[in-house]
Each structure stands twice: as structure tokens, then as C-alpha cells.
Predict the structure.
Amino acid sequence: MPRYTPPSHAASEITPRALFDSRRAFIRSAGLGSIALAAGALGLGRAASALAAQKFGALERSPFSTDEKQTPYKDVTNYNNFYEFGTDKREPAQSAQSLRLRPWTVTLDGLVARPRTLDIDSILRLAPLEERIYRMRCVEGWSMVVPWLGIPLAALLKQVEPLGSARYVEFQSLHDPAQMPATRLRVLDWPYTEGLRLDEAMHPLTIMALGLYGEELPRQNGAPLRLVVPWKYGYKGAKSIVRIRFVEREPATSWMRAGPSEYGFYSNVNPGVDHPRWSQATERRLGEFLKRKTLMFNGYAEQVGQLYAGMDLRRNF
Ligand SMILES: Nc1nc2c(c(=O)[nH]1)N[C@H]1C(S)=C(S)[C@@H](COP(=O)(O)O)O[C@H]1N2
Ligand SMILES: [Mo]
């Protein structure tokens, strides 16, 4: 079985330039955080979120960003997989609009020293919001380039002081049948659950996204917060998260339960390992006609290859 040998220089350290940029971004984003907080305190969250999407203004662009052409906003927000709102990709843009975004809390618990439940508006103020333009690839064979706004997931996870015994993190999406009628169909085992190894979760490329294209996250894209792991297939990016649990053993995920032979825990983008129904060798960017080659780890091998040194990625798919 082939073993994975990572490229020789892992570029996963954050540069001083990145730190400098993100501090400046924080100064600008702090303003919005307090507006959102005030609205929440006054119970205006629901009314406010029914208005046009809140703008975050110009933020610093993370050096982890790609300079490839960005997928048009209308494609990013009208071609979605969000099965709680229907299995048709055009459906969530309509059916998710009734999702209530305030109040919203995220519980972090499990193997941690300080379990906490954090309000979404306090999460917005945890770390400087940065623009991260990432390539995204769905296992179905389409891909896009999305200008996310987010914070490093590590900034959120550190709030609860994970114990040494915590080796994996499990993410749970909201499951509210009253707001998500499509969950009456048992296409997946709800709540939508995903997982990462702790070192993957702490990697500087992994973000909790709170917005895209300079605005707060549209509901169909997983508002008010969703995971983005750019070197893994799209389904690892759980949407509308309400709970993050630190565990010792590899957690089962909704997709693994639905089809263990089709979906593995790692789900790293890998052109050499096909899904039983879809080739992973090539992909089609939304809005483009010709297919392009899929890159190992979706083009992020320099940064993440070291995480999988010596692993058999055909077995650990
Ligand atoms: N809760 C939840 N999260 C989810 C999904 C879902 O059905 N429910 N679909 C996943 C899949 S398969 C993909 S490709 C991405 C799509 O994200 P996007 O619509 O923002 O492009 O979300 C992922 N996160
Ligand atoms: Mo997907």
C-alpha cells in the first residue's frame, strides 16, 4: 500500500506578517461585534437578521488565501448542500431563509477543563475576523473558490482548555424539526455530525466561518457559523453548529453512518482515491466549462501534508 510522503518544507507556521494583518483586521471588525451584541441584548436579533445581510467592511486578507478567480456570489449562495433544508441544491437558498439566527449559542464540552456555552456574538469577538479565500471541493465533483470571513477554529477551541486525553473533536449542527422540515426524511442521521482529529482542528488553515463576500454568512451556507476545512471534501464543513465535543475516540459522522464504504473519517481531497460513484481525479469549477485536475489535499499539501506522514491514505480515506 502506498504511504504518503509529505513535501519537505511544511509551511504551516503563521508568519509575523499574518499576525500583524490580523490585529489590524480586529480593530476594524470590533465595531460590528458590538453592534451585533447590542442588538442581541435588546432582543432585536431576529428583526435585525431579517434585514439585509450585515456588512463586515474591508478586512485583512489572510496570506493563506488563493488568488484564483472567485466563484460568483450567486453561485456560492444558490448551489448548496444543506440536507436539513432539502436535498436539491437550489432548495436551501429558499427554504433556509426562515432559520432563526438569534439567540444562538455553541456549547463546547467533553474532555475539557472548562466546558462553556458561548453566545454567537461573543464568538464574533474572540479573534480578528479575517478574509480567507479558499478552494472548496465537493466529493460530487464540483468545486468553487469562496472568500470566507472567519476566525481560526483554534481560537474558539482554546476557550475551554482541552484535556490531554482529548484526541478528536465532534461537531454537531442544529437539529430543529420545526425549522427544518426536511429532517423528517431520514436521508441522514440527525443531527448532522462531523469530526476532526484534534491536530487537524487546531491547524491554522481550519476556520470557523462567520461570513462570506464581506457579509455575514447567508443561511443556506450555514449561518451563523460553519466549519471550513479547505483540504477536505465539502461535507466535513458542518453548517449551523450548536455543539463541539472533545472526545478520546474517532467519532462516527453522519456520512460514515449513511455509507461506510463511501465516506471515511479523514475525507481528505485525494485525486488518487476515487469515491465508488464519482472520480476524484478531476473537478468542475462552478461557472466553468472545462474540467480541471484535482490537486492532492486540494492544493494545500505544503501546509497539511505533514499531518498525514506515514499514513496509508487509501485505507484512511
Ligand atoms: N449541517 C449540514 N452541514 C453540511 C451539509 C449538510 O447537508 N448539513 N452538507 C455538506 C456538504 S456535502 C457540502 S459540499 C458543504 C456545502 O457548503 P456550501 O453550500 O456553503 O457550499 O456543506 C456541508 N455541510
Ligand atoms: Mo458535498
User: Anything to note?
Assistant: Residues 81, 138-140, 234-235 surround molybdenum atom (ligand 2) (CB under 6 Å).
